[in-house]
Design goal:
With about 350 residues, the chain is α+β, with helices and mostly antiparallel strands. The chain folds into two domains: about 10-25 and about 155-350, Collagenase (Catalytic Domain) (3-Layer(aba) Sandwich); about 35-145, Immunoglobulin-like. About 25% of the residues lie in helices and about 30% in strands. GO terms for molecular function: hydrolase activity, hydrolyzing O-glycosyl compounds; polysaccharide binding.
């Protein structure tokens, strides 16, 4: 997961604090863009227990690169198969994300998709409202952000509970949506949660959804090639962290949450690290979590290692059998020392563990 062992974990918190200060100093051009949308939802045909529907979403605001449409059913309908969009459902809440071939919505452009679903054979009402990238589709435009953060397709609170761990997958504009990343990162976080319970008798709480998907503002190459920090090892992850700080009103350090960011971008020199309530990881970590790059124990152990930094632990000075050394590669055959356990529980995020 990591480039050899993570270097200077404190550097993450130091630069992040600087970025946090910069993030609130002004309004960017993107934040002043116009937003608005219109949705037409039509039930095409209906039969016993099933129906098909067509959806047309028109962007009335500034151009979008990557779109996510959300709505909620009112009568127990479910989506079973979709085309021209990737749809998922949690309870009544449905999310439709652009397919790989239709991510761009120019001003005035319309994207169409359809799906088959089930209904109760009694009533099949049109959903009462829709949002496009977090903006309510009212048929008009309003000033505001065009790049609202999007989350995995599940019903989530607007403000996640404090003293929990939030995980993000930042998807550059030219990277297609892939559910393997959402599911894989969530699996790594749940395994880390289990491991901390095993080792400390306490563990952290994950938010719902476990992974929040953030549609990035830039293509992959921008994150990889825009200098940020004193060496290219940090460019990708600092560019990601800075965007997350701005987009989600996060802080570094952040006393409300421990934040875990992963991005699908990586240059040949890219790495990652942790510190000050943050874990920031580049493309090979995201790929590993998705099952694309190497054995899973490596990615599980690496997350345990980086969360250790986030909770206040330094690297071990030798390969000592603890996950804060190269012993994390032997996961799950690695264990925190008593001193490390005590330091986590007495540290600034110890109260997050219960």
């Amino acid at each position: 997961m990591l480039q050899p062992l993570r270097r200077t974990p404190v550097a993450v918190a130091v630069l992040a604090a600087t970025l946090a200060g910069a993030a609130i100093s002004g309004v960017t051009a993107a934040e002043a863009a116009a937003t608005g949308c219109r949705v037409t939802y039509t039930v095409g045909s209906q039969w016993g227990g099933g129906f098909s529907a067509n959806v047309a979403v028109t962007n009335l605001g500034d151009p979008l690169t990557g779109w996510t449409l959300r709505w909620s059913f009112a009568a127990g309908q479910t989506v079973s198969q979709a085309w021209n969009a990737v749809t998922t459902q949690s309870g009544a809440a449905v999310t439709a994300v652009n397919a790989t071939w239709n991510p761009n919505l120019a001003t005035g452009a319309t994207a169409t998709f359809g799906f088959n679903g089930s209904w109760n054979n009694t009533t099949n009402p049109v959903p009462a409202g829709f949002t496009l990238n977090g903006v309510a589709c009212t048929g008009g435009t309003t000033p505001g952000p065009t790049t609202s953060p999007t989350v995995t397709p599940t019903s989530a609170p607007q403000t996640p509970p404090v003293r929990t761990v939030r995980a993000y997958w930042l998807r550059p504009t030219d990277v297609p949506y892939d559910q393997r990343y959402v599911d894989g990162i969530a699996g790594v976080m749940r395994e880390a949660q289990r491991y901390y319970r095993q080792e400390l008798g306490r563990t952290f709480t994950l938010n719902d959804p476990v992974v929040e998907v953030v549609n990035g503002d830039h293509p992959r190459s921008w994150y990889e090639n825009t200098p940020n920090g004193n060496e290219c090892y940090w460019w990708v992850v600092f560019n990601m962290q800075q965007e997350l700080l701005r987009r989600l009103s996060l802080r570094a350090p952040d006393s409300r949450w421990v934040n875990v960011g992963e991005i699908s971008a990586e240059a040949s020199c890219s790495g990652g690290g942790g510190g000050g309530g943050w874990v920031i990881l580049s493309g090979h970590d995201a790929d590993g979590a998705a099952g694309i790059n190497g054995p899973m124990n490596r990615w599980y152990g690496g997350m345990v290692h980086e969360l250790g930094h986030a909770f206040g632990l330094p690297d071990s000075t030798s390969t000592d059998g603890t996950p804060m050394s190269a012993s994390f590669y032997s996961y799950p055959n690695t264990h925190f020392s008593q001193a490390q356990k005590d330091r986590i529980l007495s540290g600034p995020y110890g109260s997050f563990l219960s």
